[in-house]
Design a protein that fits this description.
The protein has one domain (23-90). It is an all-alpha fold and 92 residues long. The protein contains three helices and no strands.
């Protein structure tokens, strides 16, 4: 799994309970190693944080008057062609 990526060796201090809980899945063959588990968990957590960041940016856009004005201008400019496309679709 890690062979595909450039890696950096680092040291972690983990709560004993997490080590014990993860060992169950390592011993059972669910995951190949604690390292693989940590990589997968970190990747999933970072993706979640990145999605949250994108959501915050979209929320900010909802409050951005300049963005809203531009969005309305674009909608107004395409209103005619949108109507034409809708009418054409309805007549097919």
């Amino acid at each position: 799994m890690l062979a595909k990526f450039e890696t950096v060796r680092t040291t972690l201090t983990l709560p004993a309970d997490l080590v014990k809980r993860s060992q169950h899945f390592i011993d059972g063959g669910t995951i190949p190693s604690r390292n693989a588990l940590i990589v997968a968990a970190l990747e999933r957590y970072l993706l979640d944080l990145e999605r949250q960041e994108i959501d915050r940016q979209f929320e900010a856009m909802a409050e951005d008057d300049a963005y809203q004005a531009l969005n309305q201008q674009i909608a107004d400019e395409f209103a005619g062609s949108d109507w034409d496309a809708w009418v054409e679709g309805e007549t097919r």
